[in-house]
What does this fold into?
Amino acid sequence: MEQQVIISQDLRAEVAAAIDRVQPDRLFVLTDVNTRDLCLPLLKDCFNDSISQCFNVSFSQSFNLITIGASDEAKTLDSLAAVWTALGEGGATRHSMLINLGGGMITDLGGFAASTFKRGIAYINIPTTLLAMVDASVGGKTGINFRGLKNEIGVFNAASTVILDTQFLRTLDAQNLRSGYAEMLKHALISDDAMLCRHLAFDIEHPDLAALQQMVADSVAVKERIVTEDPHEHGIRKALNLGHTAGHAFESLAMEEHRTVLHGYAVAWGLVCELYLSATRCGFPSTRLHQVAQFVRETYGQFTITCKQYDRLYELMTHDKKNTAGVINFTLLGGVGDIRINQQASKDDIFEMLDYYREN
Ligand code: GLY
It folds into this structure.
């Protein structure tokens, strides 16, 4: 079944339609402890209506709620087993459906649980963070962390429907909004100049949610176009890795040093690094590089590093799972929207890139 991405106008009707599309025999809802308290109440009416229509039962009888811990630390084999157990004990069959209500951890883990339970049941994603709306919930990447490695175990299998509704962002703190916005900036960079200018001008500190909803729609459309062309990341889907080679190295270093860094912040810093490489190696315009660097500095601050950490960052980049045969694989740009996948850079280039990052 092709993935349907809905930009929500009427959450109640859309949830009903998404359930109706699959006609499940039983319904399960996965939340974390935060989205159970903050987001599930917004959905109760929808469930009430749509489930009554589909199953002719009352809200309390109509679905099984499964709740796991919040944050990336809960993205484990134990949580996954808890979800499988709850599905089994709740009588899920191959024709049941799981609704994932939460951020990227929930949509990734829930997607993987649904994809593997009885060899796969249908699931829908209702992302509640900006990061999950514009990235994790769309495109079929599912999985869990394993043995300290992020998203080490998983499968490609898309949700039947993804419903994007920025009303959930009212419950999101400023840091997590900024974190998701970094992926939107990335989508603008791989798309076109006008989109990039709109993103650089938008006030993400005091967002107008109606305007943001339209920008989320545009952003997800960029991702959908790419994922439709290359669902399993053999080629052009690597465009979505812009900023992530350096970004993941910052994220891993932060973890080693017990510094808290949200994924999108690391991506934003990684974008500055990789646009510098794009400028020196592929002719990306330096005016755009400086504009993005300034925006990132003002919005995300800087992850402080010294040249003593360059070797470790380089080593972390060589361990990135996107590499082949130990060669660091970058996605770079020749200009905004001019994507160059499978680019290599020498150790000297990477050290120079880190110098630029520290100085700008
Ligand atoms: N997060 C990048 C992708 O979905 O390919």
